[in-house]
Write a structure and sequence with these properties.
Blueprint lengths: L9 H5 L5 E2 L7 H5 L5 E5 L5 H9 L4 E6 L2 H14 L4 E5 L2 H8 L5 E7 L17 H10 E11 L2 H13 L3 E3 L17 H8 L5 E7 L1
Parallel strand pairs: 1-4, 2-3, 2-5, 3-4, 5-6
Antiparallel strand pairs: 6-8, 7-8
Amino acid sequence: MSSTKNLISFDELESGHPLFINTDERPDWPSVFGNDHPLKLEIGFGNGRFLIELALQRQESNFIGLDFYHKGIRKSVTRLGKLMINNARICYGDAREKVPILFQAGELSEIFINFPDPWPKKRHIKRRLIKPDFVRLLATLLESGGSLHLATDCEPYAREMIVYLEEEPLLKNKSGETQFFHERDDVPKTKYENYFIRNGHTIYYTSFTKK
């Protein structure tokens, strides 16, 4: 990644950068990308490694990264520009607020949520992203047969998430009821994922498909 001093500024992004989107209206995604390729979303992309590598691997798809971390956004847009990646865009905002604005029902083919903040303290658990209402929203936005992928190293959060996901009637666990898988080789690894694996952590992966 570029050093901080070489990153594009947030003010430059907000002035109209072609790879950056900050809007309170739903974009016309085929017009944004110039094609109608499948649309895939990563919520909370961090430093952008996963999103950028996946966009390079799957150039037949279009990718949206959504986050509110300024430095990560600046890093990701800078790197997308340097690599001349045209099938990815970066969006700014809180997922709970922006996801229902940015997308309509059945518009997404895949959604990735990698290592969402587990908010481990009991008084903070209510801040966790994966809750029944949000799961229902994501399921609604997926196309028929579309997939929702999640990963966490926090077992209590993993157990909580799988309950909410399996209670959603639109979704089906690809691994079987209440089951996780602990390896994932078909997509890039995130910065945190590599760190957790090196340190011997168990990773809890889930993949659900829309019925």
